[in-house]
Amino acid sequence: MLKKNQKAPEFTTPNQHDEMIRLSDYLGKKNVVLYFYPKDDTPGCTIQANQFTALAAEFSKADTVVLGVSKDSCESHQAFIDKFGLKVDLLADTSGELCDAYGVWQEKEKDGVKKMGIVRSTFVINKAGDLAEVIYGVTPEGHAQAMLEYVKTL
Description:
two-stranded antiparallel sheet; 28% helix; alpha/beta; Glutaredoxin
């Protein structure tokens, strides 16, 4: 698992428009809130995406871009964005490489059944490319507001 103050793992991954997004594109320009979630259009993931969307303008004022990541396809991400009018880019990590690099692909247990899945997690990456904040096991409700307050301190 990653820790604060280390370099964020570089990535190149397509967004909902199948455009390649690179962490290096933001170095020296923007802070990045990189949040991992299990699946498009599920209850917790929808709460989280809608709350980040509601605060999109404030994140922008704080020189911060918000990127959501799941293993869903670009098409699934676009449908999720269209359904809820989301204003965040969603990255399609269909290979799981990004999930592995950030340590969010873990064994989870639900109702006594163990299986691998994305642990809802958030990483705040500063303009220098360092991990300013690392949170594994995020609760969706109110998380976007907490991240906004945090990036305002950077």
